[in-house]
Design the sequence.
């Protein structure tokens, strides 16, 4: 009898041990953001209206029709006068950039933001277990990740991932890599570096689909420290709840809408096709359909399902059909962190998700102040929310971004502690947050160059671009 009791007790203890081990393993698979640092270039790299006019004038291949197109694009872009560009355009070398221009651009970002991040967090380079770098349009040998390893003297056994060609949604792809590495590594720290190189990709031709990128993209970047070390959980800012990636590269139309290529004159640039809005909408809908059930409460999913069923049943009668039901993402999300791909992108997401101007404010103001910084733009939007002290413990932040391929990636973060109250934390918005949201979003380009719309192609002189300088 005693032996039987001992066997029962041993079995129960073993079962408890297995359950505890499984729970313990799951705890180590969580992904936390310890800290992040957005990059602010120096003021001598600021692209104001006057300098942009000079850049356009230096592009000899442009005619009056291209000037009118650029004026319309920049005025409707939502971008202000305090965004930043690469150094080579200030030196007048955008027609003939060198590899060194791209490397210098990246080194300035690496040395500034990564160092600030390490200083703030107290994490030493030797404590970095994983390094993920995504810079889509600059590949070099040794790689950009190797440059970081060399400069900061990271360990010889650091796990390294160097991503190129992933577009504006690359930072969430990098995040997914870190999350998956954490599943097999205990107590690990990861450094994620996201940026884009504009130096070697400034377009000097006259193809409208390619000169548009000069109007939208600006210099920037972000470095992040992530961990699954439970001992650091109390210092974390955010906890990753879920992440969904949607890729429509199998569709030729989606694949070709964002493409790096040469124009008819052999000039390299970034093509933004007319099918881009359609491809983005399709990927956006597919992504929402997958992530919605993961982040929304059951009552909202049930309401949406019932309303959809009622509408389908009522389609036989025009009087009963009614408007198409829309799922309310605000029932499971407190803040929306939207990629600053342009004013039309922000407006489109806002309309589809029925978001308020308060929800869209962080993305609009980020686009105005920093422009589209590609994959790093999400983190400038997040930094705006932090600087405005919107992020409270328990809040849920929904991120969504688009990228070449064509891709739509999204994720949900939980705020681990109240943010925005720390002084001297080096938030990229700290010196200008009081002036935002800006009450005056009128682009000065129209005031300064609006006269171009009245010019006659037969008598137009490009030298007249400086008449109001």
Sequence:
């Amino acid at each position: 009898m005693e032996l039987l009791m001992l066997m029962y007790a041993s079995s129960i203890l073993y079962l408890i041990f297995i359950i505890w081990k499984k729970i313990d393993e799951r705890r180590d698979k969580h992904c936390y953001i310890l800290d992040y640092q957005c990059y602010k270039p120096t003021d001598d790299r600021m692209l104001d209206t006057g300098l942009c006019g000079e850049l356009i004038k230096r592009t000899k291949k442009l005619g009056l029709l291209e000037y009118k197109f650029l004026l319309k694009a920049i005025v409707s872009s939502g971008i202000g006068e305090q965004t930043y560009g690469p150094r080579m355009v200030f030196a007048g070398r955008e027609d003939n950039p060198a590899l060194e221009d791209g490397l210098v651009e990246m080194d300035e970002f690496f040395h500034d933001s990564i160092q600030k991040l390490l200083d703030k967090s107290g994490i030493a380079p030797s404590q970095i277990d994983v390094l993920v770098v995504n810079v889509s349009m600059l590949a070099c040998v040794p790689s950009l990740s190797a440059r970081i390893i060399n400069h900061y003297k990271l360990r010889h056994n650091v796990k390294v991932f160097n991503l190129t060609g992933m577009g504006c949604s690359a930072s969430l792809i990098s995040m997914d890599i870190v999350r998956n590495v954490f599943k097999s590594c205990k107590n690990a720290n990861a450094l994620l570096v996201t940026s884009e190189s504009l130096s070697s990709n400034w377009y000097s031709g006259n193809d409208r689909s390619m000169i548009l990128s000069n109007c939208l993209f600006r210099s920037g970047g972000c470095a992040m420290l992530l961990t699954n070390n439970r001992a650091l959980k109390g210092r974390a800012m955010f906890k990753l709840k879920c992440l969904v990636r949607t890729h429509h590269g199998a569709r030729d139309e989606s694949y070709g809408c964002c493409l790096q290529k040469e124009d008819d004159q052999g000039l390299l640039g970034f093509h933004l096709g007319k099918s881009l809005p359609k491809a983005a909408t399709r990927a956006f809908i597919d992504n929402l359909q997958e992530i919605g059930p993961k982040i929304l409460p059951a009552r909202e999913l049930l309401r949406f399902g019932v309303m959809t069923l009622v509408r389908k049943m009522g389609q036989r009668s025009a009087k009963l059909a009614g408007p198409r039901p829309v799922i309310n993402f605000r029932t499971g999300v407190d803040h929306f962190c939207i990629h600053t791909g342009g004013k039309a992108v922000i407006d489109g997401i806002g309309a589809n998700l029925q978001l308020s101007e308060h929800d869209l404010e962080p993305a609009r103001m980020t686009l105005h102040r920093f422009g589209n910084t590609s994959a790093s733009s999400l983190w400038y939007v997040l930094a705006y929310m932090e600087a405005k002290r919107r992020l409270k413990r328990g809040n849920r932040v929904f991120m969504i971004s688009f990228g070449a391929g064509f891709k739509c990636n999204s994720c949900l973060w939980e705020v681990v502690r109240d943010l925005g109250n720390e002084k001297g934390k080096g938030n990229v918005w700290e010196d200008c947050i009081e002036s935002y949201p800006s009450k005056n979003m009128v682009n000065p380009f129209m005031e300064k160059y609006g006269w171009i719309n009245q010019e006659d192609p037969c008598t137009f002189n490009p030298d007249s671009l400086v008449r109001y300088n």
